[in-house]
């Protein structure tokens, strides 16, 4: 029995799992693909599903510029990465690349708070 099952949450929520966030759309994947095609050295980092959101992916370019979009499931971004011949990593295993943090530091004042 899982932790939340003790409280009967699965019984009371019905068939659908309620999320605070919206589902992934084609425009999310198109944004990731466009980002990857317009920049060099792009790598994808898959973020796990949480209670509030479905699985997401972060595309990080060679200079650290990045975008995050919903992908619905890790298999989706794995297929996109395979089609684009780009690497894909599990962020829980590898963490985020240093260049992404450095890019955030350099651009903190331009973008406001990240």
UniProtKB/TrEMBL annotation:
It comes from the Bacteria. It comes from Actinocorallia libanotica. This is Oxidoreductase.
């Amino acid at each position: 029995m899982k932790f939340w099952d003790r409280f009967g949450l699965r019984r009371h929520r019905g068939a659908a799992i309620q999320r605070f966030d919206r589902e992934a759309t084609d425009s999310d994947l198109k944004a990731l693909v466009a980002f990857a095609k317009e920049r060099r050295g792009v790598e994808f980092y898959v973020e796990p599903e949480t209670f509030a959101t479905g699985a997401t992916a972060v595309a990080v370019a060679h200079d650290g510029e990045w975008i995050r979009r919903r992908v619905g499931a890790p298999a989706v971004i794995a297929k996109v990465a395979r089609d684009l011949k780009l690497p894909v990593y599990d962020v829980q295993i590898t963490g985020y690349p240093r260049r992404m943090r450095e890019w955030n530091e350099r651009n903190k004042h331009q973008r406001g708070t990240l």
